[in-house]
Amino acid sequence: MPKSKRNKQVTLSKTKKKGREHKESIVSTIREAVEQYNSAYVFSFENMRNIKFKEFRDQLKASSRFFLGSNKVMQVALGRSVSDEIRTGLYNISKVLRGDSGLLLTNLPNEEVHRLFNEFEEYDFARTGTLATEKVELNEGPLDQFTHEMEPFLRKQGMPVRLNKGVVELISDYVVCEEGKPISPEASRILRLMGIKMATFRLHLLCRWSPEDFEVYQDGLENSDIETS
């Protein structure tokens, strides 16, 4: 049986002692976990929602472990080349860890992992800067969905409103957001008040490693240095 490379010493960036110890702890934790699970995946995410992700993670905690954080630290833990990888072929995983991505270590069958990720989708209110998925326009006239107490707040968001006999009234047509354009802070607040959700939290599998093979799932990865079986 080949000698494990998990305990090889690594050099992390120069930081304060506390920061260095924290990074070393993460590296050690990932390396120990790699020995406990059958396969490893890199996944990307869009419109991350921490609470929803925690629920998804807890759903799989009996069979899997997730890591999010510094990609560089995870790369160091896994190994960034053949010479420092902790298991054969695992350094290919670290090459895909870039941008908004995370690491999944699991004992679940490949088909089950794909099913869970493909079915995961959570809708939420859009944050500032998110691209609007549709145009939202309010027509001149009464806004029955808002109570009279909301009128000062709506005015602060730039809406041309007034109170007319205790009813919030729009004195001219107003575009909250345009499809394909970034949502402003004011528009984000108004859309939330209207109950309109434009953000979808999704997870996308990018690649999979196992002792037998390595697969890349997503087109467009810079995989010129990635070895596939």
Automatic annotation (TrEMBL):
Residues 1-24 are annotated as: Disordered. GO terms for biological process: nuclear-transcribed mRNA catabolic process; ribosomal large subunit assembly; rRNA processing. It comes from the Eukaryota. Residues 1-20 have a biased composition (Basic residues). The lineage of its organism: Eukaryota, Viridiplantae, Streptophyta, Embryophyta, Tracheophyta. Belongs to the universal ribosomal protein uL10 family. Keywords: Cytoplasm, Nucleus, Ribosome biogenesis. Associates with the pre-60S ribosomal particle. This is Ribosome assembly factor mrt4. One of its GO terms (cellular component) is nucleolus. Its main location: cytoplasm. PANTHER family: MRNA TURNOVER PROTEIN 4 HOMOLOG, MRNA TURNOVER PROTEIN 4 MRTO4. It is found in: Cytoplasm; Nucleus, Nucleolus. Ribosomal protein P0 is the functional equivalent of E.coli protein L10. Component of the ribosome assembly machinery. Nuclear paralog of the ribosomal protein P0, it binds pre-60S subunits at an early stage of assembly in the nucleolus, and is replaced by P0 in cytoplasmic pre-60S subunits and mature 80S ribosomes. GO terms for molecular function: RNA binding. CDD domains: Ribosomal_P0_like (cd05796). The keyword Magnesium does not apply. Residues 126-196 form the Large ribosomal subunit protein uL10-like insertion domain.
